[in-house]
Design brief:
Elements lengths: L14 H4 L6 H12 L3 H10 L2 H11 L1 H11 L4 H5 L3 H15 L5 H23 L10 H9 L2 H23 L1 H9 L7 H37 L10 H6 L13 H20 L8 H25 L3 H7 L18 H5 L2
């Protein structure tokens, strides 16, 4: 059996029963893939006879060298970035397809598949309109890091983190879906699934709104910088645009509301798996924690660069929480007031 036969919800979260018995497939799968490569039927049988968590993990490892080779050839290290909005949905849809192929109840998984596709569509669209898929486009933070890390060390960094760790991270973020798959024959879909689905959709909408507000601000700023005139029909003043960063809308409550929403999506998926298995925590939390750590680190680095570029950003940091609104600062207030300027 490629997946365990379980009789209780709690057992679905038992690593020793749901993962350990299938770890041997990690070493067998490459040879089996080679032997089955010329037969579509053999590949289908191999897919069904391989634990879906194992096959997803192997896929995350297999694509890492592709990211590495392309990035080193082009000296462009945003290859994983280009796939970021797609890979989690690939993994989630993989679990859904496996459930269908095995004849398992898939109502809960189907809902997650729809949510995942919506998530991918939003993030892919936003990355596209910012020019992320243009030839030569690269996250500016990699360029900054290359100035401080010599080429041999940066190559090691690329091998271990940029290409490998990030690829595996996107797999781990979707590991709770494996638990949703295992629980399908045991726990029927109910109203709680609707609650978790709506929470995830709400977070996606929050991220979309935050991205749109940022997009409107950046376009207004670009127009203002090229014409020296505040664009008509804009909510932003000349002072807002001169400041250089957005402090209105959702951005008056959180310095990174889009990141808050993004993290909430995958934490909610993890909590969904905990609810289904009647556990306060389970092993798939590793993925959610890793995702949170990555966002903490990358946001810290982003803000380090931002506060060097914009003098008023430190005032903004004092008044507004990084992710969660800070109730002890009194809010954003008027960033244009004289009191704020004295805080610098």
């Amino acid at each position: 059996m490629a997946i365990p036969i379980l009789k209780s919800a709690v057992a679905c979260a038992d690593f020793s029963r749901t993962v350990e018995p299938y770890l041997y497939q990690l070493s067998d799968l490459p040879q089996q893939l080679y032997q089955s490569a010329t037969s579509l039927q053999a590949l289908k049988e191999l897919y069904l006879n391989t634990n879906p968590l194992v096959s997803a993990f192997v896929f995350s490892l297999a694509i890492a060298p592709i990211f590495l080779i392309i990035s080193e050839i082009n000296k462009n290290y945003s290859q994983v970035d280009r796939a970021w909005s797609l890979l989690p949905s690939v993994y989630n849809l993989h679990y859904v397809a496996y459930g269908h192929a095995k004849g398992l109840p898939t109502q809960r998984l189907n809902s997650l598949a729809i949510i995942s596709v919506i998530w991918s569509a939003r993030l892919t669209f936003n990355y596209w309109r910012k020019g992320g898929y243009q030839v030569g486009s690269e996250d500016y933070r990699w360029e900054v890091l290359r100035k401080y890390i010599n080429p041999p060390l940066f190559f090691i960094f690329n091998v271990t983190f940029i290409s490998l760790a990030q690829s595996v991270l996107l797999f781990t973020a979707t590991m709770p879906t494996y638990i949703l798959l295992l629980s399908a024959p045991i726990i029927a879909a109910d109203s709680a699934d609707m609650v978790f689905s709506q929470l995830m959709l709400g977070a996606i909408f929050l991220a979309f709104t935050a991205d749109q507000q940022q997009w409107d601000f950046q376009n207004a700023k670009k127009s203002y910088q090229s014409t020296a005139k505040v664009p008509p029909a804009t909510q932003f003043s000349a002072r807002d645009l001169d400041r250089g960063f957005l402090t209105k809308g959702l951005w008056s409550f959180s310095r990174h509301p889009n990141f808050l929403a993004e993290q909430s999506i995958w934490v909610t998926l993890y909590l969904w798996s905990c609810y289904l298995t009647h556990t306060y925590y389970n092993w798939t939390g590793v993925g959610a924690v890793a995702y949170l750590i990555l966002f903490q680190a990358s946001t810290w680095f982003t803000e380090l660069l931002t506060e060097r570029k914009y003098p008023d950003y430190k005032i903004y940091q004092k008044r507004v929480g990084m992710f969660v609104p800070n109730p002890f600062t009194g809010g954003i207030g008027d960033m244009n007031d004289e009191t704020g300027k004295k805080e610098k």
